[in-house]
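Section 3.1: Structural characterization of target chains.
Under the original work plan, the team committed to producing a structural model for every single-chain target entering the pipeline before any wet-lab resources were allocated. The record below documents one such target. The sequence was received from the expression subgroup and is listed exactly as submitted; it comprises 263 residues.
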Amino acid sequence: MTADILLDKHRVKRSFAAAAAGYDRLASLQRQVGLDLLRRFPLSGGEEVIVDLGCGTGFLTHQLAADFSGQQLLALDIALPMLITSRLNYPAMRAGYLCGDAEKLPFADSSLDGIYSNLALQWAQDLSAALLDFKRVVKRRGRLVFSTFGPQTLAELKAAWLAVDDYTHVNEFHTKDQIELFLQTAGFKGINVASVLYRSEYPDVESLMRELKGIGAHNVNRRRNPRPTTKTQLQQMINHYPRQGAGIVASYEIIFVQAEMAT
C-alpha cells in the first residue's frame, strides 16, 4: 500500500489557476459536499485559530467564517488566482490568505486548533506524509476535518475509457480504509471516516467533460496518455459510456473524515 498516487503537482497547480474565473459557475457538487461536511462536523466553538486548506474560491471558508468566533481564520490554496477570486467573492470576510502547498504547511508546531478542507486533499502526492505534518501543526485536542474523493468517483467514465485503451484517464483516489490507516499511522485518535456516493446527472458526456475541465479537475496522473486524445478515441469512449434515459449519470464517492489529536 502506498500513499503516493503519482500526481503531477505542477499540473494540478496550473489546472486550478486556470479554472479560478469560472469555477463557481460549475462547482455545485463541491458546494453541496462542503455544506454536508460542516453539518457532519460543525465547529466546536472553542477554536481560536483554524485554516481552510485548499480553500479555492472561498465557499467553505465563508461558511466557517459565519460560525467562527475565534482569533484567526486562515485560507490557504496552491493557486494564487483562486485566492484572488475568494477575495473578490467575499470582500468583507475576516480571513487571512496564504498561497501555499497543503503538503508543505508554513505553520509552527501546535499552532492550529483545527484544519478543515473540502475536496482538496485528493490532490496530495503523499497523503500519509501530509497527515503526519497536519498532526505536527495541530494543538492537543485540535481537530482535522476534511472531505475527499474516493475510488468510485467517476466509475462510469473510468469504465468507458477502459474500453478504449489501457492508460489512466481518470484520477486515482485512496480508499476509505487506506485513509483511516494513514490517520492511525500519523497518530490521530477519535477517527470518524464515512463514505457516501453522490450521483450527478448530465445531458451528455460532453457536458460532464466540460464541467471537469471548467473546475480544473484534469487528469493529472503520471500514467495518463502522453499523447493528445484523438477525436476517434473520444468518440469511442462516449459510445461506451452508459446512458440513463435521455442523459447520463456520473458517480462521486465522497469520503468524510474527522480525526482528533490525542489529549
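Residues 169 and 187 are 34 Å apart (CA to CA).
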